[in-house]
């Protein structure tokens, strides 16, 4: 059943009417918006990053007795994000789990979506790009701030030298040395008035 449906051009109604299920592994580069969030496409020596996802659909009747296609999508991947503490790469697991209900028109979807717990989408646009839908959900699941569970921010590069600091302080006050000389007593024999001649 899975092989009869193209996830890039999915006929949602037919998929739901047959109780369709798809489970696949998709390379991260095939989801370019999500790939741009990652610092790299590979996690160390592991295989290139990928997204594992699955989707299943069924027809359900509403309280009014009308049957509508429902789609349940789950996805998970690991992205290399930048830790906001140490600024080094940190692998973060990103996952999504979302239900979608499909209605006939865009106007109906817009009217019902606000009050519904599930996302309400329209069948009006034709075949569904299921991978783009999954990519949207994973983007919304990204953490606002990525951090290692336990890390220490890098220490500031500071080197203190007392002699250097003293020299810098003296440069900042060029009159300090003059003030020091002015307070020194005059030495005898220098021709000053403060000395007495011996008999």
From TrEMBL:
Zinc-finger listed as a keyword: no
InterPro entries with a match to the protein in the record: YceD, YceD_bac
Species in which this protein is naturally found: Vandammella animalimorsus
Function, as annotated: Plays a role in synthesis, processing and/or stability of 23S rRNA.
Keyword tRNA-binding: no
Keywords in alphabetical order: Ribosome biogenesis
Protein name: Large ribosomal RNA subunit accumulation protein YceD
Ranges in coiled-coil conformation: none
Superkingdom of origin: Bacteria
UniProt record similarity statement: Belongs to the DUF177 domain family.
Pfam families: YceD
UniProt-listed GO biological process terms: ribosome biogenesis
GO cellular component: cytosol
């Amino acid at each position: 059943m899975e092989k009869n449906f193209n996830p890039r051009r999915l006929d949602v109604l037919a998929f739901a009417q047959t109780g369709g299920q798809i489970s696949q592994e998709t390379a991260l580069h095939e989801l370019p918006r999500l790939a741009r969030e990652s610092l790299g496409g590979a996690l160390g020596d592991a295989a290139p990053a990928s997204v594992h996802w699955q989707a299943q659909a069924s027809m359900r009747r509403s309280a009014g007795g009308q049957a509508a296609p429902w789609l349940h999508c789950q996805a998970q991947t690991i992205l290399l994000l930048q830790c906001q503490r140490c600024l080094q790469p940190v692998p973060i697991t990103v996952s999504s789990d979302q239900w979608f209900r499909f209605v006939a028109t865009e106007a109906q979807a817009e009217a019902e979506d606000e009050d519904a717990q599930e996302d309400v989408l329209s069948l009006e646009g034709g075949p569904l790009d299921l991978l783009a839908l999954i990519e949207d959900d994973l983007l919304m699941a990204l953490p606002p701030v990525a951090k290692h569970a336990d890390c220490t921010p890098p220490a500031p590069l500071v080197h203190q030298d007392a002699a250097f600091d003293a020299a810098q302080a003296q440069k900042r006050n060029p009159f300090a040395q003059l003030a020091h000389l002015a307070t020194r007593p005059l030495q005898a024999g220098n021709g000053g008035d403060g000395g007495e001649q011996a008999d």
